[in-house]
Amino acid sequence: MFSAILIDKDEAGQNVARTSIDEAALPDGNVTVEVEYSTLNYKDALAITGKSPIVRKYPLVPGIDLAGVVTESTHANWSVGDRVVLNGWGVGESHSGGFGQRARLNGDWLVPLPAAFTSRQAMAIGTAGYTAALCVDALVNFGVTPDQGEVLVTGATGGVGSVAIALLTKAGFSVTAATGKSTEVEYLQKLGAVAVIDRAELSEKGKPLQKERWAAVVDSVGSYTLANAAAQTRYGGAVAACGLAQGMDFPATVAPLILRGVSLLGIDSVMAPIPRRLAAWERLSRDLDPALLDDIAREVGLDGVIDAAGELMDGKVRGRIVIDVNR
User: Fold this and answer.
1) What dotted CATH number matches 2-113+291-324?
2) DSSP notation for 163-178
């Protein structure tokens, strides 16, 4: 038996609670991991609060991220004692995930825990930070360079935004952060932002083409924010879109794309192939100062997960929430 957060559903609706689970109830897989830490992502909060149909199979242990130690394996790549990280692959949606002390997984989904990080630090990064690294990789591989001008990061105090600012700054870019939290300017400057703007400048309907400002954008917000960011991107620039905190809609025109040659780069973290994941974790290992993670993350135990999910949905969370599944 092990302790976990379990989501179940009956005629009255969804139920979420901390409970004890028999290991025999875990889904099929060729690697068993003793989980040390997980982390709370926006998708996890949606699943726990039931505000979006994230969960596709009941009962289910949520948690799209985990870090821990392999205890059993019939997979060729993994042996007992290996330290591993998992991000995405439908875990926490249709396959029980990281909000428990044990997980059984497909070994093809795992990557090695980078030597630069502890399992707790890896979960302070989590899918949000790994997605931020995918965004930065996409912009750099596209050809964006620091001499081309400012890079805008929206949703700046969130997990993706926080790590993106730190990574872009380390890569030499001048970063402008967009946030609705005026009290967090010092935090954003500590991460490396050279300027901070009010998200209200981007969050309402704007003109199809606006004054050129950004060489590139990392957007985790979507909706009008993404549309305005694209409308303000300089000729030949690129926008890496990875989230929908404001909405799934994209109320834009093709004008920035066909009149300024702006490229919209879609970033998927869930099913990204292993080589892309390894490259993202390599960037994180090289460019993210582990000391910054203390400012980016706070920790809760399993008993704190449900309340923290509500806080995240209410926009009350800065940075990352790390989950110690063993308390």
Assistant:
1) 3.90.180.10
2) HHHHHHHHTT--EEEE
